[in-house]
Design goal:
Beta-Lactamase, 5-stranded antiparallel β-sheet
């Protein structure tokens, strides 16, 4: 029965007595590529089908006999063996020797497993590890390997430099000896989530320097090949971002300083405008009283009074623009957005600017074939339209035309166009049109204003969830448009 099991075993097996092979099964013959077992039987252990020397440098014949003696003494031996097939192909074997206490001289059973593939994989891994360490040792950035508990198993010289811990002292949790106290808990928590597969690891933290300063470093890690025992490993890198963090801090401080300066400017503009408006109202009031109480004054005096009133009103309009600009910048502009018939606001605004158009000799043509309601603040919408219409008149020519029409955009939005056939806007100036206090050189000498009207219009349209835009061709005119969302019609 045992003979049949021996012969039928798929695992290569041989029997040894007195240091020589006395038998082997067909699986052993097949593994070595022998024609028959007779090629092995009678040979000394380790002398045949083996290279002259084993990987550890020992002579194969001597090493084979040493393992044989060990098994005879202890009853068991477990070893790896470099061997050769009959054709000369090298193979790696895992060999277990078991002493069988048979009558007379004991027999040793040799059980063999071909582990060539596994050995090659391990060899390749070792070579890969060696190449990795050669590259990592000379890398200009920090490279490390850690386990699931944030214990370091490898750190290249640059990592040691950043951590301020060198040699074997950096292994385990030694790398964290100089970790900034404020960063220790967040870093370990982030690594725990990362190693559990719940998050990526990309973290910025600090290492203290001996002089009391610290490095800012940016670290990232990814899963790496498992350790020899099968446990998870992670490959990480760290880079010095101290200078970047310093620059970022300076930029943040510069931005905060700019915000503070802008707030101070807005506060100044607001206070100044209020202070100017009080005496200006008195000037306008007295000018209007003069006109009302002295209708029979000479024409020269009437013209002077009208100049006072017109100049005062113009200055008051400029102050209101500055106040609006200040409110928008500080976030204090309040709007009453509600459904409003756009055509009604357009007609009312056109009526307000009609005297200016008549004085300039410009005709206004309306094409309002829709009474759709839009969501807007009616007062602010009128302010925006008045600005566009005033510009279309001021930058026009005697006998010119301003056309106003409304366009329904699929019942989702209404587009209001203010089109003129005036001087147009030079292409080079068009990108600067909505920039605060930017007055175009081609027109500033001939018109009054602060250069903030259109920037206020853009901000008001944004606050009303709308848009403002334009197209212009120098010498042919401009098309300024407003787009506002259509409101619920059931309100009307």
């Amino acid at each position: 029965m045992y003979a049949r099991l021996f012969e039928a075993s798929p695992r290569p097996v041989a029997l040894i007595r007195n240091g020589r092979y006395i038998d082997c099964n067909p699986a052993m013959v097949a593994m070595f590529g022998l024609d028959s077992k007779d090629e092995l039987v009678g040979s000394i252990v380790g002398a045949k089908l083996s290279p002259q020397k084993q990987p550890d440098g020992r002579d194969s014949s001597l090493a084979g006999l040493e393992y044989y003696k060990e098994c005879m003494e202890t009853g068991f031996a477990d070893l790896t063996w470099a061997s050769l097939k009959k054709c000369g192909e090298a193979i790696d074997l895992s060999v277990q020797l078991i002493r069988l206490d048979t009558p007379g001289t004991p027999v040793i059973a040799e059980f063999v497993t071909d582990v060539t593939a596994q050995t090659q994989v391990r060899r390749q891994l070792r070579e890969s590890e060696q190449r990795f360490q050669e590259v990592a040792s000379n890398a200009p950035t920090g490279i490390f390997i850690g386990d699931a508990d944030a214990r370091c198993t490898y750190a290249n010289p640059k990592t040691q430099e950043f951590c301020g811990v060198f040699g074997d002292d950096i292994l385990g949790h030694g790398w964290a000896a100089n970790l900034h106290p404020d960063d220790r808990e967040p870093v370990f928590k982030a690594w725990k989530k990362f190693s559990a597969g719940k998050a990526t690891f990309e973290h910025d933290y600090r290492f203290l320097k001996p002089d009391g300063g610290y490095y800012w470093i940016s670290s990232a890690a990814v899963p790496y090949a498992p350790a020899p025992d099968g446990s998870a490993r992670f490959l990480g890198s760290i880079a010095d971002i101290t200078d970047l963090m310093r620059i970022e801090g300076e930029l943040i401080e510069s931005r905060n300083e700019a915000v503070r300066a802008n707030a101070a400017k807005s506060e100044f503009l607001s206070r100044m405008s209020h202070e100017l408006r009080t005496p200006l109202n008195a000037i306008l009031g007295y000018g209007q009283l003069l006109r009302l109480n002295h209708p029979d004054m000479p024409d020269s005096q009437k013209d002077a009074v009208e100049q006072i009133i017109a100049g005062g009103q113009h200055l008051l309009d400029l102050i209101e623009d500055v106040l609006d600009f200040s409110r928008i910048e500080t976030g204090n502009m309040s709007l009453d957005i509600k459904p409003v018939i756009a055509s009604t606001v357009v007609k009312r605004t056109v009526a307000l600017v009609s005297p200016l158009a008549q004085q300039a000799g410009v005709r206004i043509d309306l094409d309002l074939r829709t009474d759709l309601p839009v969501s807007a603040d009616p007062q602010r919408l009128q302010q925006v339209l008045a600005n566009l219409l005033s510009n279309a008149i001021k930058f026009n020519k005697p006998g010119g035309l301003v056309s106003v029409n409304c366009e329904n955009l699929d019942d989702k939005a209404l587009k209001i166009h203010v089109i003129d056939d005036g001087v147009g806007i030079p292409h080079a100036d068009q990108p600067k049109l909505f920039t605060p206090f930017e007055r175009l050189k081609a027109t500033s000498a001939h018109t009054d204003g602060t250069g903030i009207g259109l920037s206020i219009c853009r901000e008001l349209m944004t606050l009303m969830n709308g848009q403002i835009g334009f197209s212009s061709e120098p010498g042919k005119g401009s098309d300024f448009w407003l787009k506002l969302p259509i409101a619920d019609r059931s309100v009307f």
